Amino acid sequence: MRQPTFRPHPHDVLLAVVSVAAGLVLWSLGLYTTTFRGLLPAWAALVPMAVMGVLELFRRTAPQAALITGTVALIADQVTVGNLATVFMFTDVMYAAVVYGHPAMARRLPVVTGVITVAVTLLSVAWLRTPEAVLIGVVTGIVSFGPALTGASVRYHREAADAARLRAEQTALLAEMDRKAAVVAERARMARELHDMVANHLSAIAIHSTAALSIDDAGTSREALGVIRENSVQGLSEMRRLIGLLREAGAEQEPVAVPSLDGLEALLAQARTTGSASGLGFELEDRRPPGGEPLPAPVELAAYRIVQESLTNALKHAVPGTVRVRVDRSGGLLTVRVDSPYGERPGPRAPGSGAGLVGMRERTELLGGEFGAGPAGTVWQVRAVLPAEEKVVEA
């Protein structure tokens, strides 16, 4: 814990030196403030003035102690010939007590000094019974209430400025956090799109290139090279389209066709071509009611990508058999289910990173749906339930 320091501020040192010097000049010229000329010698007025000069050094670091001691010094000054510099230094100590003191002190001093000013005015008028008695109250207000009120106003504006600066910093911090979150979300979306668009082509290339290297047969190699070339061309085309979209972001560009569930037949036809060498067959069961309401574009895209990634995983990991794709819409929900033959697969296999399952889960959760993937008996089942209404979050 940091210990409080009582080292005087340079400005306070300068203020104390100037005030004491001014007081010495006034005293040497015989300019006094009271009528008590015979009670104490003239030099006695220098004592409270010197005390006030020392207190000026601690106006910031110990405002409460300085005010209490300064009040005693001001009262002592009134029983001497008096010095105007002592009064002015007291007003500064009062001001500093409100500005730099504890918040409770800052709230109470203007009220207390105001009450004292009113009380002194009433007592002076009641005792002296002359109009000039009001001047005693005015002087009391100038010496005590005026500095306290000024200090309260300054402190209020300082605290308001500090609060405004803090709000601005918090707003900037929140804006930076929102910007980073938006960047992360956009990068995640781009990663999902890139993976789903290209992964199936690269998987087909990996599978057939591995088969061509493992099987020493000219016909097999030629067939594999044909599939590799077709997937390379398609993957390169989709990569160029994605790069073009990224480069032209923010500029006017032609609308890009978004994949939809109407393209599932073409997607499965491509999978049949790629998976025929691995003994895989593909079937589509579309149970959506004919002529139904169109699906929201984010849901349509997410469902298509989930089927696409599931087929890609089947090409890489499924054992020989039939991959069944089922799409159903009922009760305001769209259900996508892909069952792939599951077991120990002989022969070459394409490596997997698990990013596909992560991407499918993210797409589903962003739309407020449910996702599950795992073995179910002799099949590996991927199942996603998506809201088929318009009120969805764009993936």
Outline the biggest β-sheet: 5 strands, mixed
* Overall pLDDT metric: 83
Q: Tell me the domain tally.
A: 2
**Distance between the terminal alpha carbons, to the nearest Å?**
50 Å
**Which parts are unreliable, with pLDDT below 50 for 5 consecutive residues or more?**
none
Helix content range: 55-70%
Annotation, overall tally of beta strands: 5
Count of runs of 4 or more consecutive helical residues: 10
Share of residues in strands: 5-15%
| Spatial extent as radius of gyration | 43 Å
Query: Any idea what the shape is?
Result: rod-shaped
Find the structural class using helix and strand composition.
Answer: alpha+beta
Q: What string, H for helix and E for strand, traces the elements in order?
A: HHHHHHHHEHEEHEE
